[in-house]
Amino acid sequence: MEKSSLLKIENISKSFGGVQALDNVSLEIKKGEVHAIVGENGAGKSTLMKIIAGALQPDSGRLEFEGNSVEFEGPRDASQIGIAIVYQEPIFFRELSVVENIYLGEEIRQNRGTLDWNSMTTGASEAVKKMGLPVDIIHKTMSELMLGTQQLVLIARSIHKKAKLLILDEPTAILSQAETEILFNTIKTLKEQGVSILYISHRLEEIFQIADRITVLRDGKKVEDFAIDEASEDKLVLSMTGRNFSFDLKKELKDNNKTPILEVEHLSRAGVYQDISFSIKPGEILGFYGLVGAGRSEVMQAVYGELPSDSGAIKYKEQAIHPHNSLDAIEKGIIYVPEDRRHYGLFLIRAIQDNLSAGILRRISNRIGVINGHKELEKVQDQMQSLKIKAGSIFAPVSSLSGGNQQKVVLGRSLMLNPDLLILDEPTHGIDVATKNEIHKLIYALAEKNIAIILISSELPEVLALADNILVMHEGSMTGYLPRGKADEETILRLALGLHDKKKTAVV
Amino acid sequence: MKNKIIKILSNRVFFLLILLVVVMIVMSIISPYFLNVNSLITMARFGAVLALVGLGQSLVILAGGAGIDLSVGSMISLAGVMFGFMVNAGMNVWLAAALTVLVGGILGSVNGITVALWGLPPLIGTLGTMYAYGALALVMTNGVPLSGFPESFSFLANGKVFGLPSQIILVVLPAFLILFFIMQKTNFGRWIYLVGVNENAAQFSGIQVKRVRFVLYVISGILAGLGAIIMSSWLMAARPDTGSGMDMRSITVAVLGGIDIYGGVGNLVGTILAVIIVTMIATGLQLANINTIWQLAVLGVILLGAVSLNQVFVSKTK
Question: Which GO terms describe its cellular component (chain B) (predicted)?
Fold first, then answer.
């Protein structure tokens, strides 16, 4: 059965100050279709989404919705005809309740003009129920909910608005496995009801689970589109990057008889994590796997001195340490690269140079604090070269770079501090495949140079390919510690989900 | 061509330079006495204290975290009163002046402790010290000005060095140059911007966010201390209300000068230009015999108009 067309995009182009973000892109979304858009960062996916959602206006080209030519002056126009979008970094009101957020801007009023809370409560209950969420959350404020739940509420809001086209931008980035399942079931139901979904994700496995059609963007151009049964992971990667490369880089396992550089013993913080013990040797890559919210970052920030711990001991280079801030840790050679680069990593409006040198200013200044400009420039340029950061000028704001290059800047800043122990928190989160591969290679190279690396990651293939040993956490507890040789996807996932099966678990 | 003009006008420093020229022309038309050497010198003397506390205010705001120092006026008053007591107790006036700068730093450090280290909201913390310092200055003097400064001390506010007002050459210019150098060339200056743009990223990069902000409140206090000395020399008395109104005026010149109220953007040259503009308007209107109440209204309108107009140009470049 040929489905009828919902949205047609014809020859859309958009440029930002000389950068062609979209170049003559056309695509068609049918009713009841799940249409995935893939591409490296900077390929133009977000720009395309924003144009469809009315948040940006194209320079040229046209949109056709249900057979009628449409032009959006703002997001409201798009929303009125039934296009809803849930952004990757969702926008909502933290201190308002779930009901209020669901009906935001579209509150139901009684004849007197006062708010009709009864209808809204009923409506919101239905909406969250459809997403498999407990109904009692609707009177909680958004800030009381977990990240994943917040995301599901926002998707519930869009569905409740009776959208005909739902745009989801990396919806699973912050969802747990279970929440992802809920989302996928909802998507299937919506599809049956004739709702179309435009789905953007870096996770190819997901796309193969739910999409009907896949469009590949590269450098603002549409490269190809595939029906799902014509596509394969290899084909997509080739199409996205324009080149072939292997995913199966694996670190060589070597005997490591060095003295541990870091030993953490029985570290606990009430309500966050309990009794965490591990050690890591120079040149070792220790994977920290767990679902979002398992407490991995909190443990590491305690080692970095940015978050407190209640009890336990941290030994570094065979001495007990009590770092009380990041500067303390940095001086000792411990560097933590935080996850959310926009909020914890980048100085967006500042120059690339300032972003790279932010950590080493103390080391390149004289006694009264005057920065040695030549040294700064030299070190920054060296780092840009060795990490292959692509930028027009080092004085351009870091916000002008693509996501992958921004991540390299954050990494580069840390490497300039010459760490002995490098803690990377989701270093490849939300970046394109090519840069991801580069960062993986970089991690190997650093381990070769005898740097100890703790890799916090939610991507199992990444952990399995890179880590010598893998520590698994579930809701604040350590549920497993395995050498890579004894680890497989299923075992690790079971541990991370808290499905204890002592016989299968090789706790060393 | 049109784009070029818009681009120039969207740069706050150029915008202020043009505004300055416009103000000068308008004021010369209103008052024939406006553009002569004597009134220019008087204006420079008049703007000196505002320049000092305006610079301090700019730094505090630049470092973000909703930073603001409402207590600069009260710090001027209290430091001035302390200065008066020291001189009346027989201390050498220049030694007393040096100690007054120290007093300013200590008063500022109280803000630094409550706001930067303990995490009190800056608006509340410095509102508290604004009242406390102001009241203390009144209590200590019973509201009566302290005189008794030696005749020679008048030189600082009324004398000339190289034919220019001595408070500008000896205090304001060096203070500005030192601060400008710190902002442009030192790691501390860079930290101020980085902390103002993203305090979380700064913290994770090993920049001591709290300490940077603490130091800025101390600097604001030190500049208020310098202001107190100049005011005492100007009035040849220490009045317990010397600094009143300085808090709001210092914020005015900072924001007119292009310091982003949310931190991270702006520079001290803008602040100085704003001080010159604000001082010229006040003096010009005075010379034209316009009631002081109207002067404040004009200042308000100029602030709103200038910042809005600049915003229009900025948004056009995007």
Answer: plasma membrane
